[in-house]
Write a structure and sequence with these properties.
mainly alpha, globular, binds protoporphyrin IX containing FE, 7 helices
């Protein structure tokens, strides 16, 4: 077994930077997702998601120092997230995960979590 945290095992901050910057490059071009993001500049949203995932996987707790408890379901309530939005989010994330080159078994572990989390944030079934 590997005593390092997932965060360290996949390469630490540079890996999360690459992953989330690739994800937001997809979001910027995604007609379903882009209108959901209220800010013109996606940079701050990119930083929040990156810091959250770094913290979740055993890295520094900068996310909670800045934002408090994640409360992801509550924080997504302002946005209509149906199956279409969820699937678009997962498609963009899939591209990012594939291109970041995270090795197994971490890749599957990461993907399983992201899929579960995305399904749990659906808040509209219209
Ligand atoms: C914030 C959309 C799934 C984590 C946001 C925001 C939008 C959004 C529009 C606001 C942007 C901002 O200003 O930060 C979506 C959609 C999803 C989804 C459409 C599809 C299911 C997820 C998942 C995670 C996640 C699966 C975690 C694994 C976050 C975080 C924030 C955020 C950490 C920032 C919260 C804060 O501190 O304010 N999301 N999201 N989201 N999302 Fe998502």
């Amino acid at each position: 077994s590997d005593p390092r945290s997932f965060y360290e095992a996949v390469g630490g901050e540079p890996t999360f930077r690459k992953l989330i910057s690739r994800f937001y490059a997809e979001v910027a071009e995604e007609p379903v997702l882009r209108p959901l993001y209220p800010e013109q500049d996606l940079g701050p949203a990119e930083e929040r998601l990156r810091l959250f995932l770094m913290q979740y996987w055993g890295g520094p707790h900068t996310y909670s120092e800045r934002r408090g408890h994640p409360r992801l379901r509550m924080r997504h309530v302002p946005f209509k997230i149906g199956p279409t939005e969820r699937d678009a989010w997962l498609r963009a994330m899939r591209v990012a995960v594939d291109e970041t080159g995270v090795e197994e078994p971490y890749r599957s572990q990461l993907w399983q979590y992201l899929e579960m989390a995305a399904h749990s944030l659906v808040n509209s079934w219209e």
